[in-house]
Specification:
Keywords: Membrane, Transmembrane, Transmembrane helix. The chain is mostly helical. It has helices at residues 3-12, 20-29, 39-43, 49-63, 79-93, 99-118, 125-142. The longest helix has 20 residues, at 99-118. The radius of gyration is 27 Å and the shape is elongated.
Length: 143
């Protein structure tokens, strides 16, 4: 029997109001699809309905685009923004260990953030914010 006739046979067994997800679920239950299955799932005799739902959820979550900054397809920081972020983090980390490093790193973060603002880079404000966070507690000690 060809794959086309087997697929038609499985589809004909479904309800008339079946969605695409129902069709895919039926193919997984009949062991006609192995895409997205682990080796353990492939070697099993039969998959339960809950296991197929887990597979579909895993496939759906794998196809979602992450919305955070780690997705470099959507977020491409400029050099000034990246420098501002790195120096801002250094400024915060060294705030209580060795304050002179904090002052230099905060100044670099502030200037980098302002350069990012001038170049209209995305997320330029992070360097400025990190610089202010690292400097303001020390300024409050003097006031």
């Amino acid at each position: 029997m060809s794959a086309k006739t087997e697929a038609m046979k499985i589809i004909e067994q479904l309800d008339d109001k079946a969605s695409w997800n129902d069709i895919i679920k039926a193919f997984y239950l009949e062991r006609k699809l192995t895409i997205g299955l682990s080796k353990d799932e492939i070697n099993r005799e039969q998959l339960t309905e809950s296991e197929v739902n887990g597979i579909l959820a895993r496939l759906e979550s794998a196809s979602d685009m992450p919305s955070d900054m780690l997705n470099t397809k959507e977020y491409n920081p400029g050099n000034a923004t990246t420098l501002g972020m790195v120096s801002g983090v250094i400024a915060i980390l060294f705030a209580f260990i060795f304050p002179p490093i904090t002052w230099v790193a905060a100044a670099v973060a502030l200037v980098s953030g302002l350069v990012g603002l001038k170049r209209k880079e995305e997320k330029y404000w992070v360097g400025i914010l990190l610089a202010l966070i690292s400097i303001l507690p020390m300024l409050s000690l003097w006031v």
